[in-house]
Amino acid sequence: MDLGLKGKTVIVTGGNGGIGRGISLAFAGEGSNVVIAARDTAKGEEVCRDAAALAGTTVCHATDVTDRASVDALVEATLARFGAIDVLVNNAGGVCRPGPFLEQSDADAEWEIALNQRGVRHCTQAVGRHFATRRAGSVVNISSNSSLLGEAAQHCANYGATKGYVNSLTKALAFEWAGLGIRVNNIAPGWIVPWEEGQVSANSFWERFGFELFGRPEEMRRQAEEGALFNIANQPVRRVGRPEDIANLCLFLASDVSSFITGYTISVSGGVYMP
């Protein structure tokens, strides 16, 4: 099926590693103009090189989504190069560090609030103003199963709460912006593992504590196949989720093929969350 994304311009925040890398390459494969907005531009340029053989044009722009001025500069640069923006994927986000809620410092909580809430607000408002002038656009937010299930937010309660903001904002803006021709949808990933260690950014939770705490990609794949991976054993679809599992749904929600869908949060988690 042709999703009609060829020539469309897509901003992917945090598009330089992990889930974001998968999303960036998927849009590039559809022939889209992809702007990777990321702090780790070295990893962003790696994704651009990986995308070079694909149909689209992929560029990286140094961006700190927690800084309003940095986001405004991203939008201006994207419009200057491509003339319009068609899709925004709010993928940048993360856990500062896992631990009991009663022991979390204000600084760590603020880090998560700034990235997961203010970052989404900055990007959605800045790009949304452009969408409103065109009376067209699609926003795809990336939330988390941690916002939907208590057990998924174990030792990351504040993170789950910040993603709950994303869920609520999705519905509120979908209703507010429908008359402007703007759709807003939301993907809540479950356990998603990169194929290789080198496919994550320096700022990723995988690099900061994930690989040490949960294991390496190949090890997790083997344990999942053996039924020994701690969070896969009771999962209905018993395999490790991959970045393309998120990317495929992202393409659909960004495209006009889903033009009658707005305001939805969809869990991509192998059946862990079934509303």
Order of helices and strands: EHEHEHEHEHEHHHE
| Sheet of most strands | 7 strands, parallel
The first-to-last residue Cα distance is 28 Å
Overall pLDDT: 96
Strand content: 5-15%
CATH topology, by name, is Rossmann fold
According to DSSP, the number of beta strands is: 7
> Under the CATH scheme, which architecture would be assigned?
3-Layer(aba) Sandwich
CATH superfamily: NAD(P)-binding Rossmann-like Domain
What does this structure look like?
The structure is a single chain. The protein is of the alpha/beta class. Helix content is 43%, strand content 14%. It has eight helices and seven strands, in the order E-H-E-H-E-H-E-H-E-H-E-H-H-H-E. Helix 3 packs parallel to helix 4 and helix 4 packs parallel to helix 5. The longest helix has 29 residues.
